[in-house]
Amino acid sequence: MTGLTTAPRPRLDIPPRYRPAGIATGAVVAIALILVHWYAAVQTNTSPKELLEGWRGLWNFLFGVDRTYPNGKTIHQDGAFPLDLRWSETIRPGLEYCLLTIWIGLLGTTLSIPAALFFAVISSRTTNRFVPLWFLGRGVMSVLRAVPETVYALMFIAAVGFGAFPGVIALAIHNVAVMGKLWSEAMDEVDQGPVEALRVAGASPVQSAAHAVLPAVMPSLLGLLLYRFDTNVRSSVILGTVGAGGIGFFIKTEVDSFHFDTMMTYVCMVIVLIIVIDLFSAWLRKKVGTV
Amino acid sequence: MRADHLSSGAMLRVDGLRKAFGEKTVLDGLSFEVASGEVVSLLGANGSGKSTSLRCVVGLERPDGGTITVDGVSARPGETTGARSSGELARPLAPSEGVTARSAEAVPTVAMVFQKIHLVPRRSVLDNVCAGALGRLSLSRSWSVLAFPREVQAEAMACLDRVGLADRAREKAGRLSGGQQQRVAVARALCQRAQVLLADEPVSALDPAASEQVMNLLRSLADDDGLAVAAVLHQPDLARRFSDRILGLAGGRLVFDSSSEVTDQAVADLYRPALEALEAAEAAEAAVAGSTAPKESTDSATKEFA
Ligand SMILES: Nc1ncnc2c1ncn2[C@@H]1O[C@H](COP(=O)(O)OP(=O)(O)OP(=O)(O)O)[C@@H](O)[C@H]1O
Ligand SMILES: [Mg+2]
């Protein structure tokens, strides 16, 4: 019985966790990172001194300042606080602008669904085995994605003028590329088994996409769609600031006319809006069965 | 057991099949035949090429050489044998046959069931079976389950009835037990109107009772419906009880082809090279570990993977 516990085991050296070459590489990478950040700080005037000076400006912006002009007159410039809480002049229109922002985000997401699905299907290895088309799909999406929504919005505003419509189109185009990529990645990860089983039954690529891939990925696609709706509502706030309608547009107008208190009221409404949309989308995603 | 169904020629004929993945030869001139009404089992150690040979037959892999003939029609390498692609085949017709042309619907097809079953779990049992008919449906009649024609659904119901699951048609496939799902997969193969049914370890994930049921089903498909059935099995006793012939594979080649009364020794020999190879590999590994740095061996391993 004792023989079991006293069997001699050979003593082995413990292999070192770090090797000298690894340590040297780590040091070089760390120094390079520090240098790059130092250079970036110089280029962008980021320094403690700037931060202090900016601080005073921020204080004035938040709480107002008395400006004395050369002619001896002193004018009080209102700050962002206290908030502008007038119902019919500020809050009610603000709520309407928020709704408009949601509608822009919603349409921008929904209108992109057919094209996003098309690009997702031709850009996934599971659904498209014809390599040139696969490359074409990936390429078009990369190009579309490389242009930010704001730039699309500026282009469409130049074409059709200020308003919510150019915002919708800008979001939709950008979202085709982003959602198409997310969807195609979801399709790439699908279990190949049923796809092969249907290929054996003589199904064409389109048929196996419809009967094996899509049923399997539908919850993921829906989850990603809700996630994109959430992000697109945020983006539509930003699009507003360049003139594409919604609450963002009025934040920009108020700040341009130095109505910081009204502007800050709108900013607070945006915060509530984003949180509500975020919670709603998370709740719905859970209902759908994807997190 | 099978004489009444046997026609003059084999339903499936595989001749000199060769397949290599990179440097590694997996099939090395494999030849075998399966007749209508016959159940043939394939036995062999892990990695002996059983799955690869079946996948070559159904067109999921493109063989490097050799011929595959289904009911006298030679299959195009790397193309699935569903009704659509075989409809275009130039079929060498023997003058004695008295048949001039065959409609695409009547071309024999090869179906396959898998160890992991590969149904779409979220779809209903009936929709999964209907999917077997996709090869003969145009896109306008198959773009969605809603578009499946009534006659296809009726045929699928008949296939489900054949495997004893007609009462579960509207349930989600994922809800069924493993054995029932495998029978649904067989029904899908029937809905494909297959005359050759290949089964890759159809019962490896099933309990003994469910295995028995599935094997009985395969047997009866051969006996009563005249299908040619080839099944990869890892259970020699199931192979003996349910098949007419047992093929032994080793190193991508046929090492025996015998009636079910194959000797225990022959079966044991089948798995011996794998054991020996395993021991040899372990010895080699120990030698490598002793002489070179461990990093290089992982490098070569990743290269092999890539
Ligand atoms: N797609 C592939 N790429 C590279 N190698 C492959 C591929 N498919 C199979 N192989 C290799 O071919 C060999 C035979 O595989 P195969 O799956 O046919 O064996 P098998 O007889 O079915 O074994 P098992 O009993 O484990 O299922 C294995 O060594 C495997 O690693
Ligand atoms: Mg296998």
DSSP strand count of chain B: 10
Distance between the termini of chain A: 54 Å
Strand content of chain B: 15-25%
Radius of gyration of chain A: 28 Å
Pfam families (chain B): ABC_tran
InterPro entries (chain B): AAA+_ATPase (IPR003593), ABC_transporter-like_ATP-bd (IPR003439), ABC_transporter-like_CS (IPR017871), MetN_ABC_transporter-like (IPR050086), P-loop_NTPase (IPR027417)
GO molecular function (chain B): ATP binding; ATP hydrolysis activity
Biased composition (Basic and acidic residues) (chain B): 296-306
Give a verbal description of the structure:
The complex is a heterodimer of chains A (291) and B (306). With 291 residues, chain A is mostly helical. In chain A, 74% of the residues lie in helices and 3% in strands. Chain A has a domain of 202 residues: MetI-like (MetI-like fold). A two-stranded antiparallel ribbon of chain A has the order 1-2. In chain A, 35% of the residues are buried. The model of chain A has no long low-confidence stretch (mean pLDDT 89). Chain B is of the alpha/beta class and 306 residues long. Chain B has nine helices and ten strands. In chain B, the strands form two sheets. A six-stranded mixed beta sheet of chain B has the order 6-7-8-3-9-10, with helices on both faces. In chain B, strands 2-1-4-5 form a four-stranded antiparallel beta sheet, covered by helices on one side. The N terminus and C terminus of chain B are likely disordered.
